[in-house]
Amino acid sequence: MSYAEKATRDADFRGPLDVTTAATFVVDSQDIVIGWSPAAQELLGYPPSEIVGRPLTTFLVTAAETGTGPSSAREQPSAERPADVPVLPLRQRGVQTAVHRDGHLLQLVTRDCHLSGTGSARRLVVAADCGRLGDWESRLAMLDGLATQSPLAFAIYDTQLRLVWCNAASEMELGRTSAEVRGRPADELYPGGRFVTPGYPETLDAVMRRVLDTGEPIIDLHFRGQQPSDPGREHLWSCSYYRLQDQNGHVLGVCEDAFDISDRHEAQRQLNLLVEAGRRVGTTLDVIATTDELAAVAVPEFADIVEVDLAPAVLSGEVPDIGGPAGSELIRASFRSASPGDTAAPAGATAHSAGAPRREPHPVEYADDSPQHRSLASGGLVLEDDTLVVPLRAGGSSFGLVTFVRRGGSGIFDKAAVAVADELAARAAVSIDNARRYTRERAAALALQRQLLPQYLPPNSAVEVAHRYLPTDALSGVGGDWFDVIPLSGARVGLVVGDVVGHGLHAAATMGRLRTTVRALAPMDIPPDELLKRLDDLVGQSAEAGTDPLGAVADDDVAAGATCLYAVYDPVSRRCTMARAGHLPPAVVEPDGRVGFPDLPAGPPLGLGGLPFESLEIELPAGSLLALFTDGLVELRNRDIDKGLETLRKVLSEDASSLEDLCDRVITELLPDSTTTDDTALLLVRTRELDSRGVAVWNLPAEPTAAGRARELVAGRLTDWGLEELVFSTELIVSELVTNAIRYAEGPLHLRLIRDRTLVCEVADAGHTAPHLRYSADDDEGGRGLFIVAQLVLRWGTRYTHEGKTIWAEQALPTD
């Protein structure tokens, strides 16, 4: 190491003007150099032989000489100084211009001191380069700033880990001066504190001992504890430690620097809280679940207790009217505490609302002096001690209140915390409003669904039924599939199952339109293939018109492409006639358990137009089972339709105690996880046969005497059935219907009586002209008979067959 390098290192400790390391020279009373140090030679380049005995002006110049360049006298030092060269007076401390031996100028800072004694030496001059002095003074200023002004807390501990020195920031944290805490062990200064950085010891003593032993610094450890000058609040510091050594390598102790990052950490924590709230609050469209999510996010990260109170109208999906006396009538929707089993009464609430967290909402009232009551009265945020009450507002409406409570060392609600609480409440209010709107829309959708699907199937003599309906849209609970059982004339029954493309409310509304159409067409007793043709025409007309009844454009008309299966079962003949429009055929289970799928012509889906539909008629033994279903039952993403049909066949072939049990088994086997990708409708129908003793059939000739013969036949049969009360009215009905058939149609005539839940009278002929009910004028000779018949019966109508038509009328049976 050169002398200059050693001097530089030493100057780092002692300063550039320290006499042991700086350039020194001794002058006599005439400013003649009589002593020259090695450091002076290193600084100015002159060896002692060339400078000793020369005047100071040999290398020091005046201002007048500066910039003129080196003189010949300086280039060749001589003992004689020209008379015109002024003598440079030395100052106690100042900046001098010097000429290096090689001729360049440099600025020196000098300090001189007078020497006493009998010798010729009068002054000792200490000199150093100005640049080095500036650096050293900057370091001194920096050290002074660190000691007095820096926000970082610095402390020095000796090898026994006792405090030696600390700066002003550290004194502020400790609440005492350095002199008062000097010599105290580190762990005593911050009792109860601990390091929370994984992988490092928890105590101050252990961390600093590790630095002393290894010499490796430890950077950015997080220390959590109480600040002595701020009791009651937990702080967080970022701390670093490094070992201190002297210039000879002897260990002196440990230096600690610490920066209080509590506010920054709190700001980051609150930002994370808002991010977490955005991720976790509002994941469902359930009002109560949303309030639970808000409470779960806020406890314990933001508050120790959270209470969410809502207006009762919100739970039913309505817009609340919070204000005035009625504003205090809220429902406790959620309560959450950081302390398990906390049963403390909520702040400001009366005793009946206290208690452990409860899932079911319950009424809550507020005392007149409670912060909640004041918040309701003012419509704004209220902060009182450790309680913060924030209104839940969104879209110009107020839905309730959220109350945040902090306890113990959780800290107060400062300005930043209030802003976070307000933002949390605002975000939660938007989610609650969305859930409220969904609740209202879902209630409307379910009401619509209840109107569109049969909620009650009246008992009938033709079939026994059971059904299930599973919409894909589990949120709204509505879908586009449907089923129906429609009573028809002659004790027959119409069976319908259909599937509309798509899901949700729009598909449900379209389904309702199709179902209503089928129910309107079915009582006309037209054959199933003809009914599907008319339904197909209706869908096609809607597409051509450009919109459907809901206002959807043609491309969005989900009725187009819908499928449907329609079947008519006659319990008298035990014959079932069916047709389908792109739908799956039904499963038929015979009484012996054999399961088959009839070879029913497929037919095109509804709305295609121009393609025919075909009917199939089969005879079903009494006790047979028909399973009508939509493709959502048998087709899944991970299961093809053939596999689903085979599973359905297997389940239907097994014995079941009831149709309801069988429905449950079918759903369990084919939809074990209820994760269908399509709406599902299932209708199970067990056929019955009317007792032949309750049916009477006669053939009559198409001649005038047939009316009298018909009266005799029905009177006798009604007497046998014990229905004497209906003889007169039935004779009148039969006489009118037979007479009209003879007059306006062709023979032969067929007369049938059916004793079921009503008394059915039917007259069939070969004609296709339907009778019309009309008012007759006073001078008309006829036209009154059908009008009289209509007054005697519950209902009447006409159905057409390939052979002609049948006019029927139903009468109520006498009550006991």
What is the gist of this entry?
The chain is α+β, with helices and mostly antiparallel strands. It contains 21 helices and 33 strands. The radius of gyration is 53 Å and the shape is rod-shaped.
Topology:
Elements: H1 3-14, E1 23-27, E2 33-36, H2 38-44, H3 48-51, E3 60-61, H4 72-75, E4 93-99, E5 105-114, E6 123-129, H5 130-148, E7 153-158, E8 163-166, H6 168-174, H7 178-181, H8 186-189, E9 194-195, H9 204-214, E10 218-227, E11 230-245, E12 251-260, H10 262-280, H11 287-298, E13 305-310, H12 312-315, E14 330-337, E15 362-364, H13 371-378, E16 382-384, E17 387-394, E18 397-405, H14 415-452, E19 463-470, E20 481-487, E21 493-499, H15 504-521, H16 528-545, E22 563-570, E23 575-581, E24 587-589, E25 595-596, E26 615-619, E27 625-629, H17 641-653, H18 659-670, E28 680-687, E29 695-700, H19 706-720, H20 727-744, E30 749-755, E31 758-765, H21 785-792, E32 795-801, E33 804-812
Antiparallel strand pairs: 1-2, 1-6, 3-4, 4-5, 5-6, 7-8, 7-12, 9-10, 10-11, 11-12, 13-14, 13-18, 14-15, 16-17, 17-18, 19-28, 20-21, 21-22, 22-23, 23-26, 24-25, 24-27, 27-28, 29-30, 30-31, 31-33, 32-33
Helix pairs in contact: 10-11, 10-14, 11-14, 14-15, 17-18, 19-20, 20-21
